[in-house]
Amino acid sequence: MSYKTIVRSLRTLSYVGSYKKIRSRPYKFYYAAIVGTGFIAYNQMKNNKAEMKEIMQLKNYMAEPITPLAQLEQNPDDMKTQMELLIMRIQAEFCRALEKEEDQAWEDEKTADDYDFDKDLFLPSPESKFKVDRWTRKEGGGGITCVLQDGRVFEKAGVNISVVSGTLPPAAVQQMRSRGKNLQSSELPFFAAGVSAVIHPRNPMVPTVHFNYRYFEVRDKDGVQWWFGGGTDLTPYYLNEDDAIHFHLTLKDACDAHDPTYYPKFKKWCDDYFTIPHRGERRGIGGIFFDDIDFPSKEKAFEFITSCAESVVPSYIPIVQKHKDDAYGYHERQWQLLRRGRYVEFNLVYDRGTKFGLHTPEARYESILMSLPLNAKWEYMHEPKLNSPEEKLMRVLKEPRDWLNIEKGKRTVG
């Protein structure tokens, strides 16, 4: 207890008249009163600081938490609480980082009156901000969907969190069983919380990024089963090897802080998962992806998820800043739209998260389908020219690359 705290406690005693009442009592009682009152004041100060910190944090979120604040405060150690607060923070931090790029892109730019353009043509708005849509579902929980559209840097950016509970329908239970989950009933109580984002930039030289981090609890007759899942992956339209290395190295650092075997294992998982089988190609240049993480403990798994989620901004925003003003033309734009068509094909045909969302009762389809781009195209039997930048990208999409030469290093050491 600090000297200033004791002084404030003594002043408090004198203000209420207590000091006069104990003045004639034994010194031991006197000192005990000071120390006791100081201890109470100190604890009150700590509580006030904690409450103020929570209030300040709430102001930084995109909206109020889905779970009532009183319930969150009563269960601070519950993993459901910890996960909800994490995804609220990650959503807000990522949205602010994207909005900052939009704000900076419009500094010293012309106003609408300065442009010589046909009124029917599109002109991006310098007021591009996230539309915040907080929604609830009748069966339990809800979410916060944040979408920015028609920006100068980002054509469409969606950052969504969901905190939902209820009963899993048979289709969702069957999907989990197909992954090896030993679930005893056909309909099970569940809790799920996660953050997901897909960013479609305007400039074809800036890649699309996707990330998703989630926590599940399912209760059956044997008790509660829990697990984490997620990942971050990059989908460029034009290949830049330095960007690919930066992106993968940032994710590797996040993984290595917990287990050096995570990155190579989850990198391969990502390459295998984000595959479009009917095209014989990957959606992008990968990253990390994992599911069913229920080891080494719930706390350690949560720490790992936190590191991965916090790596999104440093892995992606520097790439945006590097290329958002790069020159491009009609040809590059058309290629970008074709690749976005592939993105749509994967998400609607193969993505497990999309399927789970569509199978969930009272599903909110606007939020589930926020990952789709604002514009895309499909061209019959399109083939890029040999040795073109577009064909260079396709070679990597058909044969994933070890960007950090990890396998080569293993062979050298061996």
TrEMBL record:
SUPFAM superfamilies: Coproporphyrinogen III oxidase. GO terms for molecular function: coproporphyrinogen oxidase activity. Keywords: Heme biosynthesis, Oxidoreductase, Porphyrin biosynthesis. Pathway: Porphyrin-containing compound metabolism; protoporphyrin-IX biosynthesis; protoporphyrinogen-IX from coproporphyrinogen-III (O2 route): step 1/1. InterPro entries: Coprogen_oxidase_aer, Coprogen_oxidase_aer_sf, Coprogen_oxidase_CS. GO terms for biological process: protoporphyrinogen IX biosynthetic process. Pfam families: Coprogen_oxidas. GO terms for cellular component: cytoplasm. Gene3D superfamilies: Coproporphyrinogen III oxidase, aerobic (3.40.1500.10). Its EC number is 1.3.3.3. Belongs to the aerobic coproporphyrinogen-III oxidase family. NCBIfam families: PRK05330.1. Homodimer. This is coproporphyrinogen oxidase. It comes from Papilio xuthus (Asian swallowtail butterfly). The gene is LOC106116663.
